[in-house]
Each structure stands twice: as C-alpha cells, then as structure tokens.
C-alpha cells in the first residue's frame, strides 16, 4: 500500500475528528443541550454546523442529535437515519455497494442534557475515483477498497479495534489493484 494512500486516509480520519470537536465546543451546541425549556435557536445551530464543515472535502457531513438519535441540526448530505450508524464513540467505516463512509461519533453534554455529534465523509470505492477523492495522484490512483484483504489500513488507537475491510493486492483488471 503506498505511503501516500495511508497518509491521505489518516488525514481524513483526523479531519473528521477535529471537525467534531470544534462543533461540539461551540457555545451554540452547549446552549441547545441545556434543556429546562430553553428555546433552541436552530438557525444559529445550523450556522455552527455549516461553519464546522466549511472547507471540508466533497461528500462530508455533520449532525447533532439528541440521545434518542433525533437530528437537531446538520450540514451536508446527512442520512435520514442516524441512530444505527455507530453505537459508541470513536471512528467506524460503513460500506455500500459504491461507497465507503468514514463516520466519527462523539458524545457531548451529560445525562439528560446530552447529545451526539457525528461527522462523516463518503468516498467512492472504485479506482481511480477513490484516490482522487483523497487528493492522490500517480500509482496511488490504482488502489481501491476491497472487502477481503490481508493487511489493515486503519485501526482505532483508543479501542485497538481494527476496521474492516483490510488491505490486499489482487488483480481486478488491467493495472488495478485492491487494498484494505
């Protein structure tokens, strides 16, 4: 696996984590979770979500939910159903037939006055679009995610959990190889 590919993927993970922290630390988010009959200024909350996502790569989104998973504010192409995406804080990967989504989840607030911030980025899974979406060039464009692999690309350092799929080299077509 090219070092540039590993680094670009790690940078995407770091970017999502940073954006989640920045959004969660916004006063608008804290006020929206205070409860006690305080009216939530949704316009300001959506503005904070927009600012947290400013300059993000294509396919990125951010959302704030209450503990039950009801979306309070979002920006980008947030899915309609968030609760089943990720049950614990940290980073995870989700697959579809044509995309791979990196999802970061972090709890904000405490007790009944809490919520969850999700940040995510959806990437195409076919080469060369996968590499291009990560800003890569050259030989790195020949690699694409593959569900069956040998070497892990990424693992969660906090939990030690290795995310699937794994890396592997198997020919799919002329000049293309798989990884993950």
Write structural notes for this entry.
- This protein is an alpha+beta fold and 180 residues long.
- 25% of the residues lie in helices and 29% in strands.
- It has helices spanning 3-24, 27-32, 42-53, 129-133, and strands at 60-65, 71-76, 90-95, 99-110, 113-124, 143-145, 171-173, 176-179.
- The strands form two sheets. A five-stranded antiparallel sheet has the order 2-1-5-4-3. A three-stranded mixed sheet has the order 6-8-7, with no helix packed on it.
- Strand 4 and strand 5 form a beta hairpin.
- The protein starts with a helix and ends with a strand.
- The model is unreliable at 159-180 (pLDDT under 50).
Describe the sheet with the most strands: 5 strands, antiparallel
Overall form: elongated
- The DSSP helix count reads 4
Average pLDDT number: 79
Work out the radius of gyration: 18 Å
How many individual β-strands? 8
Which structural category do the helix and sheet elements fall into?
alpha+beta
Element-by-element helix/strand order:
HHHEEEEEHEEE
Provide the low-confidence segments as ranges: 159-180
N-to-C span: 9 Å
The share of residues in extended strands comes to 25-35%
């Amino acid at each position: 696996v090219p070092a540039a590919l590993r680094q670009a993927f790690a940078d995407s993970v770091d970017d999502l984590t940073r954006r989640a922290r920045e959004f969660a630390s916004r006063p608008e988010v804290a006020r929206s979770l205070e409860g006690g009959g305080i009216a939530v200024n949704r316009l300001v909350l959506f503005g904070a979500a927009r600012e947290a996502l400013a300059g993000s790569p294509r396919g990125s989104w951010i959302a704030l939910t209450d503990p039950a998973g009801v979306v309070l504010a979002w920006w980008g192409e947030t899915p309609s159903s968030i609760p089943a995406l990720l049950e614990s804080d940290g980073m995870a990967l989700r697959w579809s037939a044509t995309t791979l989504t990196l999802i970061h989840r972090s709890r904000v607030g405490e007790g009944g006055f809490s919520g969850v911030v999700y940040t995510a980025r959806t990437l195409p899974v076919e080469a060369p679009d996968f590499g291009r979406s990560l800003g890569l060039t050259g030989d790195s464009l020949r690699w694409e995610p593959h569900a069956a692999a040998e070497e892990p690309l990424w693992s969660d350092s906090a939990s030690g959990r290795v995310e699937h799929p794994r890396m592997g080299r198997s020919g799919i077509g002329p000049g293309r190889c798989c990884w993950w």
